[in-house]
Amino acid sequence: MDRDKGINKTDTRAEPSLSSSVSEVYSWYQTNSHGLSFSEAETRVKKYGKNTLERTRKKSIYIRFLKNFSHLMAILLWIGGIVAFIAGMPQLGVAVWMVNLINGLFSFWQEFRAEKAADALMKLLPVKVRVIREGQSMEISAEDLVPGDLMVLSEGDHISADARLVEASQLRVSQSTLTGESHPVKKIADPFFGTDLSKIEYPNYVFAGTSVVSGTGLAIVTTTGMGTEFGNVAHLTQGIEEDKSPLQQEMVHVTRMVTIVAVSVGFLFFLMLISLTQVNLAESFIFALGMIVAFVPEGLLPTVTLALARGSQRMAKRHALIKRLSAVETLGCTSVICTDKTGTLTQNEMTVSRIWLPGSNFHVTGVGYEPKGDITPEQGEFTPEIQTRLKQFLIAGILCSNARLIPPKPDGTGWTILGDPTEAAILVAAEKLGIRYEQENHEFPRAREFPFDSRRKLMSTIHLGTEDQVVYLKGAPKAVLDISTSYYEGSDKRELEPEMRAGIIAVNDSFAEQGLRVLGIAMKTLPYSGSYENPEEVEHDMTFLGLIAMMDPPRPEVAEAVKKCHHARIRIIMITGDYGLTAKSIARRIGIITGDNPRIVTGADLDQMSGEELKNALNDEIIFARVAPEHKLRVVETLRECGHIVAVTGDGVNDAPALKKADIGVAMGISGTDVAKEAADMVLTDDNFASIVNAVEEGRAVYANIKKFTGYIFTSNTPEAVPFILFAFSKARIPLALDVMPILSVDLGTDLVPALALGSEPPEPGIMDKPPRNLKEHVITRSLLLKSYLWLGPIQSIAVMSAFFFQYWTHGYWGQIFDLPAEGPIYHSAVGMALAAVVTTQIGNVLAHRTERSSIFSIGFFSNRMIWIGIASELIIILIIIYVPFFQEIIGTAPFPVENWLFLFAWAPALLLAEELRKGVLRKFEKTRVKIENTGEIA
Ligand code: ATP
């Protein structure tokens, strides 16, 4: 492939190398600072192909297919089949093997579907890159990058192709994916004349697979796809093979345990039969096999995987993309959500509403990014002098910004922005006074930038002026004041005395108390002589210009989500880079803070606190404000030490450690950096706090659903086992109502679709009114076993045995249970009745398992369509088994009189009614408990 040979194959000059100048690089790749034209980019995609890596498959599909036929249970069934052949019952042998085959195919299909669902979710997370084409900065999909594209790099970006830098400002890149070295590497745009460097050590190149840790840059793509350094070394598997989640591990364990118990019980029965009854060896063996098969929950594990996958699909519909299946279950246990403010709790649609310059106060009208509105002084006249100062202030603000305003498009989209909303808001305010970015930028071109960083809380830019260079700076007001020594009063420059500082802080606080986000703006001149490599060399002795305050209204749905969290006993802790008073005002508005005196802990306070102090502080209502991302990590660690299950949000590069450390790292899909998205377990496609809460609700629902179908499957084990028990203890005088084949037809036939349907139940009302589940809690609890085996199971067993006897009693054996014929048409039709009774009672059972606490009538009888499809499927299967001769033969059934269905359907509601009764009592009991708790009475 020629994609790695450079662009210009007819060019006789040498391919650019690390010592080439920027202009040589531009010319070799036939481009310039305006980037490629759209048509050229299209031509190059055709010529060089998409920027994708060829994937090597993880495990052959055949091996994964075969795995479903070689686990412990499958091996047991294979052997069981062989023994059946040897024992002279080829029919049974074939049937057992068929069952094994169907079970394996079913499991494989479930796994396959779960994997497809996960793949589909990943596709919703395309990697985007910012490029310049035809002079416009735009976002494109990383796979559309071509050699010659001008790539814009900023903090947190994932680099998607190899590229030569043409501009770099404070650029540091983590190349750990290529070199294993975790320390970020400094990158430059200048030609480099060193020798003996391997390609990945080139300081003026960036490489695919690496990411920007800090700073900004502009780079020309040199190589894409498999030609990149990453493509050369990547043995990319199709995603990392996922570890089994704790829940899946638990299910493996449960299935194994149950198999061992079932085999032991089966063996015990085998011994009992040959010693207590006259049943011969071969038949005893079949009965024992029946017991084993009856108890082993064959389809449980794949159904759990599928339920998790279905849960993550439902979460995706509610804007939360899950990257690890295990996160689904952890989400359900979340007890604390640490959230940042801007964009997550608020809309991140900034509108400047107030401006303050020493001596003047302005109101700004208009909402959103449309530059429509006015700036008017609060009092007094808008004198030319004041206008000039305001202009100077806004010019400083916009020149020290990277955002762009995008006018409305013909398709109806209004004014939009590219870049940081805080900066865009300043651009909009400036436009309201007729100040255009392009014009100002032309007059004072930018020479250098020290990008915003959430530790310094400052950003500054150096511009070329006529005599001197000009520095514009903006940032958190206190940070700006800390490095300012003077301010303008009219056109006079005055020293910044403590009173003036206090005055500015008071204005800042009054804005912040209204929930406004405030930035300070400052400037200074700088002689041309001198090198300015680091922000510290520039960001001092500034002249303070004023404050700009913007509204960022809370998202409308957040207050409701906060309420939901409080009901669900989930704590919310705001950890923001913004100012304490702003944070407090917003927190109060959306209900995170309800007390009178929340504690506001700043990053500086946190640095002073001991571990114990922090633990104590975390018991109070608390807001962390003006913190750096590193502080987040400490809070998360401490909360985890206190035993909490912590979800934490983040968007920047520095948030990655906290995202990794938390039980659930939540990255912002829109504003988040690629690095944060990579570190997270979940990505929000709408950056919205409410989506985290929805995901928690879905996580709880998934776990509840897994419990529901486990309970459902376990219940029918009882009526499957009872006939064997009666048969053995009556010394074979009570005929066996359900033999191996009928049992298998339930476990691997009629029960399957209804169990799956329970896996897709929507969250039950009230699911968010309970405290979070303990992460160590097991799916199979004592109460689940009691409910299945000692409550619903016995009722179902009575139904099944009564249906079995009913057929005898209505055929001349009235009242008799012993010494009934154990073969012939009556026996087989009685087996048919017993089997049909399992199925009809399972209808009530599946409905009963739809809820844990609520009455099914309160959630809507028909609200889960899948349940009714499941019920229809089991009825169709049972009709086939009873009425189609071929299946009658295999399963050992015979038809019974049609009116007997009335008897069978009379049993259908039994389990549902029993459960409604139990749940009703439970709810009543809980209500009384809550009442006692609320009134303080002692029961
Ligand atoms: P959160 O952490 O909740 O998302 P945040 O976005 O306000 O809140 P930071 O991005 O760390 O947190 O910003 C901290 C402060 O820095 C802001 O309150 C603001 O005063 C200032 N600031 C934010 N963005 C910029 C920017 N682009 N340029 C200069 N200063 C900024």
Give a structural overview.
With 939 residues, the protein is of the alpha+beta class. It has 5 domains: 3-55 and 119-236, Distorted Sandwich (Calcium-transporting ATPase, cytoplasmic transduction domain A), CATH 2.70.150.10; 61-114; 246-312 and 704-935, Calcium-transporting ATPase, transmembrane domain (Up-down Bundle); 320-346 and 556-687, Rossmann fold; 351-548, Calcium-transporting ATPase, cytoplasmic domain N (3-Layer(aba) Sandwich), CATH 3.40.1110.10. It contains 35 helices and 27 strands. Strands 10, 11, 12, 15, 16, 17, 18, 19, 20 and 21 form a 10-stranded mixed sheet that branches. Helix 24 links the parallel strand 26 (664-668) and strand 27 (682-684). Mean pLDDT is 86; it is low at 1-6 and 235-241. Residues 340-342, 420, 422-423, 452, 454, 457, 459, 474-476, 517, 519, 576-579 line the site of adenosine-5'-triphosphate. Residues 14-89 form the Cation-transporting P-type ATPase N-terminal domain. It is a multi-pass membrane protein. It comes from Methanospirillum stamsii. Keywords: ATP-binding, Cell membrane, Membrane, Nucleotide-binding, Translocase, Transmembrane, Transmembrane helix. The chain crosses the membrane at residues 65-86, 92-109, 257-279, 285-309, 789-806, 826-847, 867-886, 898-914.
